[in-house]
Fold:
Amino acid sequence: MSSADGAPGALRIFVTGTDTGVGKTVVSAALALGLDGYYWKPVQAGTEPTTDTAQVRTWTGLPANRFIPEAYVLKEPMSPHAAARLEGIEIDVSRILRTSLPTDRPLVVEGAGGILVPLTSSQFVADLIAGLGGRAVLVARAGLGTINHTLLSLEALARRSIPVLGVVMNGPSHESNRKAIEEYGRVPVIGSVTPCAVIDTTQLRIIFDRIRLYDTQAPR
Structure:
C-alpha cells in the first residue's frame, strides 16, 4: 500500500474540519488505529476534561511512542490565537514546522477547529496544513447547512493548493448532501461516521473500514 505523497510508509494525513466539534478526533483516532500509525495534535486549545491526545490514546490503545507531543497546549477552549494571548504567548508556526516527524509509519495530524481558525495574527490552520505537506481529510456534518460550510472549506484548501483525499461526513446519512458535495466540491466523500454511545477499538475499526482512504478518484 503506497502513501498519499508517494513515499512508502510515509503517508501523512491532516484531519481538518468545517467547524469545531464535527468529529475530527474520532476520525483521527480511527485513521491512526486503522493505519497502525502515529498521531499528532500540534496545537491543543482546551484541556478539560482531557486533551485530544490523551483521548485518542485511551480510545486506540496504541503505544505511548505513537503519540507526538503537542507543540502548544493551551488551557482555554477557544481559538488558538486568543487562547495563546490569554497566556501571554504567541504561537510560532515555523517552530511547529521544524518538529522532527517520523516517516516509518503513517502519520495522522489533527487540526484545531476549522481550516481558517487563526493561529497567529496572520496565520491560520490552513497555513499549517500547507507547510506540513501531505493530504487533507475534511470532516463535515452530514445534515442541513453542510453544503455551504463544506464547499467554503474545500475552496480555502484549493486556494492554498492543498490536496484533499476526501470528505468524511459525520451524522445520519443524507444522500442529497453527499451528492452535492461531490458534484460541486469535485472531491469524493470517502466515508461516514454515525453517532455511537461508546467509542472503543472495535468501533474505531468499523469507522476505519467505512473510509475509502485509497479510493480517491474525483467524481466525473
